[in-house]
Structure to design on (1217 residues):
């Protein structure tokens, strides 16, 4: 067995067993035993926390937005909805699959559909208060949904815009204009009128768009710097890019809240730290850092400092982000309009190398299907059976059949953070004769750049995460040709337009039996894969090394594997008071 | 003298407006779209247009620039609909990312960058001048040679290399210092200094060499002047001769370099701040670049230019103080 | 009238200091060492493709067998994977050959620095001579332009320009951007020198002799300013190399997979404690080159332009 296949095999084994011991002696003898890399899916670190103390969060950057109307980044949504504001419905606080379960939050239940799932009614709990003691009302939720339409407050989730009746052209509550499709018959009832049936509407009401904002507190764009709390903590101080301090909201009542445990007395987020400094501090966990958690995932570069140490590994969470990284090809343009050329890319890609560039099997799982494993009940199928290291000969053969025996040149846009992965793609495609030029773009400009379908490059490297565990939040977004927009295109970056696929999507969307729909999505995933509009590459994990004094910590599957801030706390609060 | 200062100040404003115009044109002509960046991952064409209008990006370039410049002197009101934002004098616009007036952000970060620059400046002056004077007094000895080659070698080290070595040696391995976390001078002077010690050292190592070399050659030259010989012949102590006569006469070129260096650093040492995680203007700038936050990029560029121009002005005025021969 | 006279004068003014300079320089150990280092890196840069053919690995070739995916891609073997196959070890994660990347990085770094220097020197000399010789309005305009350029916060401006510009040749752009801010330094020196040469007898003689301004500039003034310009040029180069490295370090430099020293250092900073060799190799290359050019420039200045250091 040569080294190459050994690595490949070990990788597959690890991916399949979700961190089982890699059965490869050559690997082991070379660099010691590599057992499970930290606590994987479903693990809780540190037992049950004690109430009190200060939890410190070490972060490289500021939040994108904490204003609930604008907050649409997985980790930020976790932080905002778990600590600062409550939404109509939210995710259960629990490890593994439990974290995907919906539970009522501000609402008394998961909503009542009527009119063929076109009308949804929610009733609000009594006794929920803001940080100043005033009660949360249905009108405040309506107000925040409305303000998410304002061009002054861009960035938020667009479910409201996509589904609410009469939302076209609406520009927010300026000059007293309101949405008639949201009705508030009394302070504790809110009714949404949708323009098409949407059976999964409660899933959308988890978004911070459906958190309350009282009109009197709204300061427009500056609300981002001081959201008004309806959750267990309120903002004591917030110096943008430097430090955020949260203290208890005395008016929050634990009896109205079955999700948030609110163990620490105080949370301090230190921002602007160097990523490698954060990694080093978390690995060392000395002094005050024992009661700290990192905000961002461990960098692959630090893996060598974590993996050989059992003690550190034992403090590491590594939940899947549930997002599939893909190489998407512009199916509307030569040469990628030929399916053979796209298949050649499928075969040429050396996913092993990309995996290594991404931190190795401890931090990622290879992907053999588009939808992440959670949408397949835990494990992705491998319908194409392409070796993880690629098959250059087969790729060349496909290129020859496509009339491109000498390969071709193309360009690929990637976000700055994906540069390493992109270089691995570049290198492996070069072996099959496909010369790729990499265009790196800042994360902030990335979606705008690849969303410009006219001027973008033929290849893009991007991922998709289902908003909630249903195939309907994955395949239609990524492969439905009717969602393609000339500018601001999102999701379907292969510009894939296939009549059969779209017809099937409509059929599945109309299914009322969730199980049947699920199976149908899974089957469709394989059918699209055979047409190769995109190559699934890997699913990243979200590795977090926690301080030694941290308890109740697990990765929340619905928030991309980020630490669940609803339940994290300290083992011994007396060690972390300031 | 007053007339001269007035004329120079007018010049300063002219230079700053010219720099603003150049920066403005470059950033608004080059293909980058802050509206699209703000709009997020799913953005319809109508929404994009609305956001662009709100940001004022639908106006012609000259108009945007005009508004910007007037805003600096008179303040301006921005935004649309119910969310009007007042941006007071001196208005450099509103940051898209931070939802704060750029001026406030700059003033918030300035103490950090200024602490870094001034502390480092004191350190490098001390190191550089001492090394230079010692080398000059022991001209052509081994001490001279070692000092000078050492200075050049230290200056040739990339600042990120020195910084990483300092972090590794003093923080990671020896545990002598904490990871730098900026503490305001007014809050705790001791912590302020201990947290900034490493960044100061890293910068001082880079800059000191220049001063060592400059002061050495100035000293050698002035010590050979007749008036120094006279002073010595009068029986003045060596120390007085060196410091009062020798150094002072050699100050002019050093002051010129110093003005340029300090002016350039006050508005943020991008690399040093990012390596040590100091929340100064350099980091603000770097973050704004990644976020496409054009008003902040503009603001930092202008502030930095202002510091350079003003430093030059101050240096020119100081010539008159140091060197009695200079008159305006 | 003899047309040869000024040329002859210039030649004698030029020739003997040159010979003197060479003798003076040859005496210094630092100069000899610096020359060796500069020559070494120059050969490395120029012969990069040849050298990598010799070592067997290209700068962009991944070597999966040289890194351990289970350790976050650490190189296999001691000292960052230094072996007979990989002379300077490999890059972690990708397994790319460090020797190949270092020599190709030298090529990119030196190419950018030298081209930018050439730009700066040519533009600066032209502007300086024009301002000094013609004086009056030309001088006023050029001097204002110099002041304006020097007031630009150059590094901040360069970073900003590099980060917004897309779809262009990065190496060309970087050269242009770095060169843009350097010329006033040369121009000022040349202007001062020109002013002092303008009314020397031999220049006056040439003027009386009916030489046109172009002829006087190229024949009489240019040789006169060349000494300080050469010294200054050598001192500009290390600054250019450092600037290129700083820009690449900040992630706005060359496009992947092109290596440059700054880019290599930037990537290797993350590994400075797990794979120190990876960090040390490009850093020492950068250090040595900058040091060698600075020492060389210092010596040249002392010899060719004895007054400039102490005005």
């Amino acid at each position: 067995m040569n080294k190459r296949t050994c690595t490949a095999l070990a990788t597959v084994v690890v991916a399949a067993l979700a961190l089982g011991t890699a059965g490869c002696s050559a690997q082991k003898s070379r660099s010691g035993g590599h057992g499970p890399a930290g606590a994987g899916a479903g693990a809780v670190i540190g037992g049950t926390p004690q109430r009190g103390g200060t939890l410190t969060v070490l972060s490289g950057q500021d939040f994108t937005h904490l204003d609930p109307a604008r907050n649409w980044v997985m980790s930020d949504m976790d932080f905002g909805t778990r600590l600062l504001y409550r939404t109509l419905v939210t995710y259960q606080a629990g490890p593994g699959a439990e974290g995907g379960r919906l539970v009522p939050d501000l609402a008394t239940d998961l909503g009542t559909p009527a009119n063929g799932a076109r009308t949804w009614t929610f009733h609000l709990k009594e006794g929920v208060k803001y940080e100043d003691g005033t009660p949360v009302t249905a009108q405040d939720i309506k107000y925040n949904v409305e303000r998410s339409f304002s061009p002054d407050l861009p960035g938020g989730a667009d479910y409201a815009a996509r589904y609410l009746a009469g939302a076209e052209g609406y520009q927010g509550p300026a000059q007293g204009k309101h949405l008639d499709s949201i009705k508030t018959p009394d302070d504790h009832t809110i009714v949404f009128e949708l323009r098409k049936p949407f059976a999964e509407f409660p899933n959308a009401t988890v978004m911070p768009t459906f958190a309350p904002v009282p009109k009197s507190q709204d300061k427009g764009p500056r609300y981002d710097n001081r959201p008004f709390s309806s959750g267990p903590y309120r903002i004591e101080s917030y110096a943008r890019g430097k430090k955020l301090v949260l203290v208890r909201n005395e008016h929050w009542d634990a009896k109205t809240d079955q999700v948030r445990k609110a163990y620490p007395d105080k949370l301090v987020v230190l921002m602007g730290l160097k990523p490698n400094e954060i990694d080093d501090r978390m690995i060392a966990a000395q002094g005050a850092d024992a009661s700290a958690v990192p905000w961002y995932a461990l960098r692959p570069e630090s893996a060598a400092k974590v993996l050989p140490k059992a003690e550190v590994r034992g403090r590491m969470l590594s939940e899947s982000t549930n997002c599939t990284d893909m190489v998407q090809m512009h199916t509307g343009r030569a040469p990628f309009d030929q399916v053979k050329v796209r298949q050649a890319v499928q075969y040429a890609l050396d996913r092993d190398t990309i995996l290594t560039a991404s931190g190795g099997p401890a931090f990622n799982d290879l992907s053999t299907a588009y939808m992440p494993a959670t949408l397949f009940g835990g494990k992705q199928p491998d319908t194409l059976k392409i070796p993880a290291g690629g098959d250059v000969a087969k790729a060349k053969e496909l290129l020859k059949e496509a009339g491109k025996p000498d390969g071709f040149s193309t360009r690929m846009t990637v976000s700055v953070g994906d540069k390493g992965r992109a270089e691995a793609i570049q290198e492996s495609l070069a072996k099959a004769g496909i010369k790729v030029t990499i265009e790196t773009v800042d994360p902030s400009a990335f979606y705008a750049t690849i969303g410009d379908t006219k001027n973008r490059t033929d290849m893009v490297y991007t991922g998709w995460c289902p908003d909630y565990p249903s195939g309907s939040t994955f395949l239609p977004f990524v492969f439905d040709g009717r969602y393609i927009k000339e500018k601001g295109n999102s999701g379907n970056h292969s510009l894939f337009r296939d009549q059969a696929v779209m017809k099937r999507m409509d059929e599945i969307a109309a299914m009322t039996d969730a199980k049947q729909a699920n199976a149908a999505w899974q089957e469709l995933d394989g059918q699209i894969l055979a047409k190769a509009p995109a190559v699934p590459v890997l699913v990243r994990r979200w590795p977090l090394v926690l301080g030694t004094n941290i308890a109740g910590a697990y990765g929340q599957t619905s928030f991309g594997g980020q630490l669940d801030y609803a339940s994290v706390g300290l083992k011994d609060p007396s060690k972390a008071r300031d | 003298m007053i007339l001269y200062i007035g004329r120079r100040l007018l010049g300063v404003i002219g230079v700053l407006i010219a720099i603003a115009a150049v920066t403005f044109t470059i950033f608004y002509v080059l293909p980058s779209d802050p509206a699209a960046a703000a709009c997020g991952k799913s953005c319809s064409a109508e929404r994009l247009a609305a956001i662009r209008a709100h940001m004022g990006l639908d106006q012609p370039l000259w108009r945007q620039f005009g508004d910007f410049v007037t805003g600096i002197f008179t303040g301006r009101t921005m935004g649309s609909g119910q969310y009007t934002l007042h941006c007071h004098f001196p208005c450099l616009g509103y940051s898209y990312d931070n939802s704060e007036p750029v001026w406030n952000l700059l003033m918030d970060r300035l103490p950090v960058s200024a602490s870094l620059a001034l502390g480092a400046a004191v350190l490098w002056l001390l190191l550089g001048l001492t090394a230079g004077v010692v080398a000059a007094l022991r001209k052509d000895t081994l001490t001279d040679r070692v000092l000078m080659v050492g200075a050049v070698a230290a200056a040739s080290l990339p600042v990120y290399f020195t910084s990483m070595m300092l972090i590794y040696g003093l923080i990671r391995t020896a545990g002598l210092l904490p990871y730098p976390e900026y503490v305001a001078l007014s809050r705790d002077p001791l912590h302020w200094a201990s947290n900034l010690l490493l960044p100061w050292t890293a910068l001082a190592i880079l800059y000191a060499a220049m001063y060592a070399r400059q002061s050495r050659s100035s000293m050698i030259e002035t010590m050979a002047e007749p008036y120094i010989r006279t002073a010595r012949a009068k029986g003045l102590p060596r120390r007085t001769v060196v410091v009062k006569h020798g150094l002072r006469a050699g100050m002019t070129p050093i002051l010129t370099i110093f003005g340029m260096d300090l002016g350039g650093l006050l508005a943020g040492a991008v690399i040093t701040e990012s390596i040590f995680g100091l929340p100064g203007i350099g980091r603000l700038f770097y973050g704004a670049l990644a976020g496409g936050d054009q008003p902040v990029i503009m603001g930092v560029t202008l502030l930095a230019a202002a510091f350079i121009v003003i430093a030059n002005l101050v240096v020119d005025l100081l010539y008159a103080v140091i060197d009695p021969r200079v008159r305006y | 009238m003899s047309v040869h006279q000024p040329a002859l004068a210039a030649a004698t003014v030029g020739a003997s200091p040159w010979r003197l300079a060479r003798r003076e320089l040859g005496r210094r150990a630092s100069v000899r060492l610096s020359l060796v280092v500069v020559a070494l890196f120059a050969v490395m840069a120029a012969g990069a493709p040849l050298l990598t053919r010799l070592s067997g690995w290209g700068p962009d070739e991944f070597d999966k067998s040289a890194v351990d995916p289970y350790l976050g891609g650490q190189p296999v073997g001691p000292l960052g994977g230094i072996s007979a196959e990989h002379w300077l070890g490999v890059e972690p994660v990708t397994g790319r050959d460090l020797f190949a990347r270092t020599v190709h990085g030298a090529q990119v770094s030196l190419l950018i620095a030298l081209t930018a220097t050439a730009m700066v020197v040519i533009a600066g000399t032209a502007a300086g001579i024009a301002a000094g010789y013609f004086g009056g309005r030309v001088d006023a305009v050029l001097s204002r332009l110099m002041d304006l350029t020097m007031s630009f916060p150059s590094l901040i401006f360069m970073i900003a320009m590099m980060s917004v510009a897309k779809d262009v040749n990065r190496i060309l752009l970087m050269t242009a951007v770095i060169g843009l801010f350097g010329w006033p330094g040369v121009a000022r020196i040349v202007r001062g020198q020109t002013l002092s040469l303008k009314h020397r007898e031999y220049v006056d003689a040439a003027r009386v002799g009916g030489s046109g301004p172009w002829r006087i500039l190229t024949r009489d003034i240019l040789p006169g300013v060349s000494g300080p310009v050469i010294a200054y040029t050598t001192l500009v180069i290390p600054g250019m190399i450092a600037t290129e490295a700083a820009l690449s370090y900040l992630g706005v430099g060359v496009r992947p997979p092109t290596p440059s020293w700054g880019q290599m250092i930037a990537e290797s900073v993350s590994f400075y404690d797990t794979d120190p060799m990876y960090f040390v190799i490009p850093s020492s290359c950068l250090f040595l080159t900058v040091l060698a050019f600075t020492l060389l420039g210092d010596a040249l200045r002392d010899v060719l332009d004895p007054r400039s250091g102490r005005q």
User: Anything to note?
Assistant: Residues 20-91 of chain B form one domain.
